[in-house]
Amino acid sequence: MASFASTECFLPLHQSCLAPMHHQQNGTSAILHLNCKSKNSLSFSSSSSFSTQGTNLCNAIERKERSSFAQMAAVRHLMGSVTRTQGLRFAVVVARFNEIITKPLLEGALATFKNYSVPEEDIDVVWVPGSFEIGVVAERLGKSQKYHAILCIGAVIRGDTSHYDAVANSAASGVLSAGLNSGVPCIFGVLTCDDMEQALNRAGGKSGNKGSETALTAIEMASLFEHHLK
Question: Where is 200: in which H helix or E strand?
Fold first, then answer.
């Protein structure tokens, strides 16, 4: 059993005296002694006792909190690195259609590989007729197990017919299927733009070079698979 020391305080009253009060709750008892100190003040003292169950509960909560913290500290965060490029090989599948766009995208990707210390001999470029053909070639390259990531570069510009939607959707699903079926990251770098101006802006213009961004993604994904997910 544990007990608290009595305390004493004064409260203003409108009565001259009060009788002692007894209160019982949840198996514990407390006695409140009320005494008149003066006409407008009240003095009271209290004493209470409780079982060690409260202390045990606090200890259990503390142990649970420590266990939760230990579990959080043990969580691993796996990330690819753009600086660990040694030994990584890449293939780039490029569509010839809209070459005025795809060629600058390719140049941006190759420049980024060079900046991140990927040797030229570790990069193969494969040209295909258009964006529709990218997926099947990317899957074949992935299944060859020669590459750690495949870049897929193309450009689809909206025209007057629904042909744009068919090609854009097929290119996206083809690249996705290539990665899933081969187990090798296939990075989607096909521009789908409403007009030529939008495409030029994203192929080295004011919106940057999406080919460069695709290469960075490929490096990170290749590093993640090679160093953490083998």
Answer: helix 196-201
Can you tell me the distance from the alpha carbon of 142 to that of 100, in angstroms, rounded to the nearest whole number? 27
DSSP letters, 169-196, are HHHHHHHHHHHHHHSS-EEEEEEEESSH
State residue 203 phi and psi, 5-degree precision: -115, 45
Q: Catalytic: 33?
A: no
Per-block mean pLDDT, blocks of 10 residues, the chain (230 long): 46 45 48 45 47 67 66 83 94 98 98 97 98 98 98 96 94 98 98 97 96 98 95
> Cα torsion at 97, 101, 102, 105 (round to 10°)?
-170
Which one from 22, 163, 227, 228 is the annotated catalytic residue? 163
Q: Are 88 and 151 in contact (CB under 8 A)?
A: no
Q: How many helices (H) and strands (E) does the chain have?
A: 6, 11
pTM for this predicted structure: 0.69
Q: Is 97 exposed, middle or buried (0-12, 13-18, 19+ CB in 10 A)?
A: middle
**Which amino acid would we find at residue 213?**
E
